[in-house]
From TrEMBL:
It is a multi-pass membrane protein. The keyword Membrane applies. It is found in: Golgi apparatus; Membrane. Belongs to the nonaspanin (TM9SF) (TC 9.A.2) family. One of its GO terms (cellular component) is Golgi apparatus. This is Transmembrane 9 superfamily member. Keywords: Golgi apparatus, Membrane, Signal, Transmembrane, Transmembrane helix. It comes from Meganyctiphanes norvegica. Its main location: Golgi. It comes from the Eukaryota. InterPro entries: EMP70 (IPR004240).
Length: 620
């Protein structure tokens, strides 16, 4: 029992303190070369990543060698490349020029200097790797004096209207060893500083500069002469290799996540109380009265959901589109569920760079067979006949939205020469995955789903539709949409903040145990609110619930869109056109995806509820 409790605690708190599956430790001997690689440059102000050598920086003598990357790394804008830093295990280095000589500095032209100054003013960070461990910058909080770590190091800074570059790096590396023979890198910190070229003395291999020195200015309007240098310091550490990611995973406060879970549980209990009142008090009384032996006149005087039993299962308008949207929602749901479970178990750790995005894409592609199956069975239940056309709609509707939105945004990213631009070969690979895997699997799922018997309904549908009476004002679709979206959004908005921070502020997110709990609570709350809204709609003798359940159940997506705008205005400092376009474009993709997910959950919950209550009454 104790082992199970420990396992659950570790899963909820992420990977802190236990082995990360699929990532083998690298062991170094004393004096072995430790390669320093560069990933990219990022800024939360522009949202446009750039590869390391997009600026005229020191290059290795043996040439630049780019690492072969997976699909997720390419889509994230990572371009991992070697650097000229020479680091040996356990050997400190006081100061060494990175390239060129004291008498032969790097000469940046006016255009090159202007580009560097522009990156610095836009608050760009440089991201390096040692043994697949990203570098971090340590600083102290002014109020609590606690040590906090930040990913990467700042390219430079502004002071008194001038721009300065951090051209000297102190690489502080920590190692752990059990036998003083094999060493493992467990921490990688960078202390960046700006040193004017005139302050360097000594030799190329052993340079020095005074503790109090002038900063290296970057001319915004003319050429710049600059020297790059670095030093290395090794420290022994008690941190074991399995816990070396702790400083990155502790960048978020776990207590806030627990508050989010408690807040979500309160929402679920509130909805459960409403449902209990409806199911036990109202529905049981209504079913008992309806099944009692009453005279015909008394039956005719009844009102509410019982009177629309002959129309409640009447197929909605545009059944092909309806089935396609539900099928896409099922596909997204299965992809999200499996991805979160795998990440929660540590199989998609941040050490496996790009693994999370790669797994999500492949799972979405292969879940097409399940989405096609459910869409086909629903389409046949809605008396559809053109199953091939419906299968094509299911396979192309949502992917086409993703492709055209991404393709449109990619033009602007290409124009900025950003590494975030998806290469043409990668776009062909994604298109091939859809054409050769997702599309055929959707048709296979449709073939078997359409051959299955349609869902059985407990009551027959009348030939002549019943007239819907005038509805009360609070049952207006827009009001229902807003009311239905409040509680599911309230159950997950705190976790949404951390997800947005991970996406737009380049932070790690690895508390997938919390995310799984929030996902379960979101599913329950969406289902519960859909049941409540559909029940009130049927009580008003409005049997057009199919599309209403789909639209209102996804009402929380409206609040996600509104919160994204609030997050943009309060947390980000985006001012340029292209970054704003990217933000709203990617937010649109996120909102539509979230709407399909929650709408599908709400529809199936409402559908099961309606079949259950009408199956409990006696119909002549």
């Amino acid at each position: 029992m104790l082992r199970k409790l420990i396992l659950v605690t570790l899963i909820i708190h992420g990977s802190q303190g236990f082995y990360i599956p699929g990532v083998a430790p690298v062991e170094f001997m004393k004096g072995d070369s430790v390669e320093v690689k560069a990933v990219k440059m990022t800024s939360s102000q522009t949202q446009l990543p750039y590869e390391y050598y997009s600026l005229q920086l020191c290059r290795p003598k043996n040439g630049t060698i780019y690492k072969s990357e997976n699909l997720g790394e390419v889509l994230r804008g990572d371009r991992i490349v070697n650097t000229p830093y020479e680091v040996k295990m356990g050997e400190d280095l006081s100061c060494k020029l990175l390239c060129h000589k004291l008498t032969d500095p790097i000469n940046w032209t006016a255009d090159e200097s202007k580009e560097v100054a522009d990156r610095i003013t836009h608050d760009y960070y440089v991201h390096l790797l040692v043994d697949n461990l990203p570098c971090a910058t340590k600083f102290q909080m002014l109020d609590t004096r606690d040590e906090v770590y930040e990913r990467g190091y700042k390219l430079g800074f502004e002071q008194d209207g001038k721009v300065y570059i951090n051209n000297h790096l102190k690489l502080v590396l920590s190692y752990h060893t059990d036998d003083d023979k094999e060493f493992r890198v467990v921490r990688f910190e960078v202390e960046a500083s700006s040193v004017d070229r005139s302050e360097f003395t000594g030799s190329d291999e052993k340079c020095s500069f005074p503790e109090k020195h002038k900063f290296q200015e970057v001319s915004a309007n003319g050429p710049t002469q600059i020297l790059f240098s670095y030093s290395v310091e090794w420290k022994s550490s008690d941190v074991r290799w399995a816990s070396r990611w702790d400083i990155y995973l502790q960048m978020t406060d776990v207590q806030i996540h627990w508050f989010s879970i408690v807040n979500s549980l309160v929402v679920v209990f509130f909805l459960s109380g409403i449902l209990t009142m409806i199911m036990i008090r109202t529905l049981r009384r209504d079913i008992a009265r309806y099944n009692a032996d009453e005279s015909l006149e008394e039956t005719l005087e009844e009102s509410g959901w019982k009177l629309v039993h002959g129309d409640v299962f009447r197929p909605p308008r545009y059944p092909k589109l309806f089935a396609a949207l539900v099928g896409s929602g099922v596909q997204i749901f299965m992809m999200a569920l499996i991805t979160i479970v795998l990440a929660m178990l540590g199989m998609l750790s941040p050490a496996s760079r790009g693994a999370l995005m790669t797994a999500g894409i492949f799972l979405y592609v292969f879940m097409a067979i399940i989405g096609g199956f459910f869409s086909a069975r629903l389409y046949r239940t809605l008396r559809g006949q053109q199953w091939k056309s419906a299968a094509f709609w299911t396979a192309t509707l949502y992917p086409a939205f993703l492709f055209f939105t991404g393709f449109f945004l990619n033009f602007f990213i290409w124009g900025k020469s950003s590494s975030g631009a998806v290469p043409f070969t990668t776009m062909l690979a994604l298109f091939s995955m859809w054409m050769c895997i997702s599309l055929p699997l959707t048709f296979i799922g449709y073939y078997f789903g359409f051959r299955k018997h349609p869902y059985e309904h407990p009551v027959r549908t009348n030939q002549i539709p019943r007239q819907v009476p005038e509805q009360v004002w609070y049952m207006h679709p827009m009001l229902c949409l807003l009311m239905a979206g409040v509680l599911p959004f309230g159950a997950m908005f705190i976790e949404l903040f951390f997800i947005l921070s991970a996406i737009w502020e380049n932070q790690f997110y690895y508390l997938f145990g919390f995310l799984f709990l929030v996902f379960v609570i979101l599913v329950i709350s969406c289902g519960q609110i859909a049941v409540v809204m559909v029940y009130f709609q049927l009580c008003g003798e409005d049997y057009h619930w199919w599309w209403r359940s789909l639209i209102t159940s996804g009402g929380s997506a409206v609040y996600v869109a509104a919160y994204s705008i609030f997050y943009l205005c309060t947390k980000l400092e985006i001012t340029e056109f292209v970054p704003l376009l990217l933000y709203f474009g990617y937010t649109a993709i996120m909102v539509v995806t979230f709407w399909l997910l929650t709408a599908t959950i709400g529809f199936y919950a409402a559908y099961l509820f309606i079949r259950k209550i009408y199956g409990a009454v006696k119909i002549d």
